[in-house]
Amino acid sequence: MVEVFKTNVEQIEQSQWLINQIICHIPNGMVNFDLEDCDKILRVEAESISNRTIIDLLNKNGFHAEVLI
Q1: Domain range holding 10?
Q2: Burial profile 24-57: b = 16 or more Cβ within 10 angstroms, e = fewer
Q3: Element (H or E) spanning 12, and its range?
Q4: Considering the domain boundaries, does residue 69 fall inside one?
Q5: Rounded CA gap, 37 and 26, in Å?
Q6: 3-state secondary structure of 4
Q7: How would residue 5 be classed by pLDDT, with cut points 50, 70 and 90?
Q8: How far apart are CA 67 and CA 34, in angstroms?
């Protein structure tokens, strides 16, 4: 399963920290950001993904995320 999110993450340091946080919730997942994209894409690949968990995690840390359709 792959989910793609639009975010407002701007800095590489922020994305790296968030990747580590997400991996704590999805240990076998693959997570990356494309900060060059205008939508600051977050891509999460795993067997099972809770969109709400990802969005809440970013929101809790001061960032916005929404599922990109």
Answers
A1: 2-64
A2: ebbeebebebeeeeeebbbebebeebeeeebbeb
A3: helix 12-25
A4: no
A5: 24
A6: strand
A7: very high
A8: 15
User: Does a structural domain hold residue 59?
Assistant: yes
Say which residue the tokens 């960032």 belong to: 63
User: What integer best gives the mean pLDDT of the chain?
Assistant: 96
CATH classification at residue 52: 3.30.70.100
Question: pTM of the predicted model, to two decimals?
Answer: 0.94
Residues 6-31: what's their mean pLDDT?
95
In a domain, 51, yes or no: yes
Written as one string, the DSSP assignment of 13-60 is: HHHHHHHHHHHHHSTT-EEEEETTSTT-EEEEE-SS--HHHHHHHHHH
Q: How many domains does the chain have?
A: 1
